[in-house]
Design brief:
two-stranded parallel sheet; 4 strands; two-stranded parallel ribbon; about 70 residues; about 45% helix
């Protein structure tokens, strides 16, 4: 619903995917995501409803494999 605050509890699915080497790219909403996803270190947080930002982060990891590897090992 527009205008309604967004909140995410503890992001178990994100932790499970990170344990397999996936880099999380998520919306920057309050809750557990802010504790788990540390921007530019363990993943990326994008502004809510900004699909371009999500695409740019995916493209960044595709072209910068060294960064991808570093973030996977973090």
């Amino acid at each position: 619903m527009p205008g309604q605050p967004k909140f995410e509890g503890f992001p178990v699915a994100i932790l499970e995917s990170m344990s397999k080497g996936c880099i999380p790219i998520s919306s920057d909403i309050s809750g557990g995501i802010q504790e788990v996803v540390i921007s530019n270190k363990t993943g990326f947080k994008c502004e809510m409803n900004n699909n371009r930002a999500f695409a740019e982060k995916i493209e960044l990891l595709h072209h910068k494999r060294k960064l991808l590897w570093e973030m996977k090992t973090n």
